[in-house]
Structures are given as C-alpha cells and as structure tokens.
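Quick illustration, no need to memorize.
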Amino acid sequence: MDQSQGEGFYVNLPSNASLSVFKNNTSSNYQTDLAQHVDLAGLWEVALTEITYPHTWFNLPEEDARFESRRDNGEKHWQKIRGGYSDDLYELQDELNSYPRELGMDVSFKYCKVKKRFDYAATTNCKMRLLQPLAYMMGMKPFEWF
C-alpha cells in the first residue's frame, strides 16, 4: 500500500490474528502481520480511533462474594452470593436482599443513587459485615460490623 499521496487510512490490528506466527499473543500484549506492506513517506499523524476488548474480568470474585451475619445470641453465619461481574447496583440489591430472608432475619439493603452507597435497615437484632470488594461496591467499609 503506497501512502505517498498523503491520504488517510485505517489499520485494524486484531489480537487474535497471526497466532501461527506469534504463538504467545494475548489480548493485552500482541504482535500481528499486516495483510500488505504500508510505506509511509514523510510526516504522519497517528490516532487511535477505536479499541475493543473482551470483558473477561470480575469485579466481585467468587471467593469474596459473601457476607457474615451475627445474631445477638452470638450465632454467626457466612452467606455466599453470586460472584462475577456486576454493573447494575439494583440487581446487586435484589441479590443481597434475598439471603437474609432465607436466614430468618428481617434485613434489607437499598441503593441510594444520591449518596452512591447502600443503606441498611434491620428490625431483627443482628449485625452484618462485608468483605472487600463487595463492601467497596456498596460504599461501605470492609470487615466493619454494622
């Protein structure tokens, strides 16, 4: 491809191309062979116009997707919730509110959009604490009883 005329062009650089040549490519660190040679004569401005990446991470790992409850009589219980990726805090609110009822506790969490955190209400005598990153997602301090 001769670019001596100064016309603009786009190059697509997919991370999963050239795997037979570059066997150690990953989505975050890769090399690729272009389909044809690009000859750039003179000065050029370069811009990244688009980036696409696979969503392969969790913001709530399975091992941290749990909370602890403690009743006044000293009885403690760890409750596991669904881990993975959550960007919908109202969905997380529904998930959290389903478990205390299963344990016979009248506890509820409600997301407050203005404060950007969860509020907690309980009519039974119990306390709860959260692990990180769940606590951070909820705007609370990890490992602190509330």
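The mean pLDDT is 86.
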